[in-house]
Amino acid sequence: MPSLCPIQVRYTTVMTLLVLMIVVVLGVSMDLAVRYRVRDEAFLNAEKAVLRWSAQVRSDHVPRPIPVSAGVDLVQVVDARGRITSSSPQTGRARLSMLRPEPGDRLRRRTECPPGKRCVLLTVDRVSPSADSPVVYAGAVEPSILATHDLEFIVAAAALIMTVMSGWLTWRITGRSLRPVQQQYRLASTTSHELRNPIAGLRVQLEEALLYPDHVNPRDTIQRALSTTDRLEAIVDDLLLLARLRGGESASHEAIDLGALVAEEAETTSHPVPVRVRVTGDVWVHGSRTQLIRLLSNLMSNARRHAEAGVIVCVTSGDGLAVVSVTDDGVGIDPADRERVFERFVRLEDGRRRDAAGSGLGLAISRDIAHAHRGTLRIEDSPRGARFVLRLPLMEGRQLPS
Q1: Is residue 157 part of a domain?
Q2: Of 134, 150, 166, which closes a domain?
Q3: Edge to edge, what strands does the sheet with 135-141 contain?
Q4: Model confidence pLDDT, tens digit, residues 252-298
Q5: 327, β-bridge pairs
Q6: Which of 48, 56, 328, 355 could be stapled to 307 by a disulfide with Cβ–Cβ 3.0 to 4.6 Å?
Q7: Of 134, 119, 156, nearest to 42 (Cα)?
């Protein structure tokens, strides 16, 4: 049987790599866009400030020191000889830049990075084309988003989270999508394994009858072949019922007196092991009579098969649920096997010893019927033997105190 896990791995890997490529491209684009926007806005603010102070220089109304505005705290006026004639308090005594624009290119942008200090974003304006024109510098220290790599770390973290989340979601979605196919593979494998033995036995019996007609009783061969055919038919019927239950096929539902149904089923089948039924109160459910009869029959047959002296079936209600417990006085079921016995074709050693012709599908069918009725079927602790407990929603309007 081919494994589908590599398919899930491949899908997840491809999708994760694709998402990684996309988020890397988007992350780099966003990083560049943010950096460009912040830098451009800083230069535009500096340009507005430098043009305003250039107008003040031309009219010879420059205060000392120069007051600053929000976002532009570095302003400096330098004459043609390179002397600082006026500045804002934050500039200190050193020139902000040695750049002196040419007369034909008066307005310039400049990034100055002094050693050991953060870079400064400046806009430089030559006040006039004349040779003795002063120059005005305006700007601010480079914002931390541009001076550090914090933005890249944030983008990388977001990209990593998105990639991991997409990989996890892809793994979950593909796993959920492939689960029915995986179940079909397992069903095909286990079914072929279970059918192989009776088919092989049937072939041996028929071939033996053909090869040794004088030594084989045809009547015995036909009887054994019919017995094997009955087992094959039972397996096929159970598989078809499982397929209908797990395929969501609807069955006609009706109001059912669960206590009466349990009592009838306990008396229907003749068996040397007695079944005692205890019903407390009126317990009504809404469901398929045929399916519930099959469920109860499976549980009682299983209990009788493993019981030593008898089986007790209790029907009660409480907390909005109908509760049916089927308890035998046999050797019980090990806690490690309590969930495994509900799997298809699983038969414990004691079950195979007591009934070699069983299909191993009865409990799987019983649990599926319980789920189809929005109920549960599980094995719970018991002082002796095994105790199967079925819980189904009570029919509305008929719930009575237990």
Answers
A1: no
A2: 150
A3: 84-87, 74-78, 135-141, 120-126, 107-112
A4: 789 999 999 999 988 876 678 889 999 998 899 998 888 898 899 88
A5: 312, 387
A6: 328
A7: 119
